[in-house]
Fold this sequence. Notes:
Layout: H1 2-20, H2 28-38, E1 42-48, E2 56-62, E3 65-71, E4 77-84, H3 94-106, E5 109-117, E6 122-129, E7 134-140, E8 148-151
Antiparallel strand pairs: 1-2, 1-5, 2-3, 3-4, 5-6, 6-7, 7-8
Amino acid sequence: MKKLMTLTLITGLATAPMAIAQTSPSQADRILSQGTDYGITQFRSVEFSDGGYDDIELEGWMNDWYVELDMNGDGTIRKEERRKYEREPYGLSAGEIQDYLEAATNEGMATVDEIKVDRRGEVEVEGEDDTGRELELEFRKGELEPVRIKRDD
């Protein structure tokens, strides 16, 4: 019995950082609200770091500033960086991100590691399904049907 309890504890401690590094698509709404409240209007990337510290990284545009925020899980900002760019901002609104997360959920994604969009309008959502297998989905901006699905065994 002691061995079983010890093994359970060790397993829990070993997997805890992975659980902290991800979030469910429904929990992402709170994080997007914090980014929107900060002033981000177009998100380029939302990442739940796998360092095991409940870290969240938001990148996007606030007017003509490119903003990078490192946040704790409770929304406090640990680090902020802003840069002026003389190029057209691109990204997704918080509502568009929620739409892609819902589409990812419909494809079997249970937890999200990262969602990002590039300048060409390719949207990538990375995470895991409910069995813990890695799942990557690629969309075109404006379309909620994936153009690529990759599952790791």
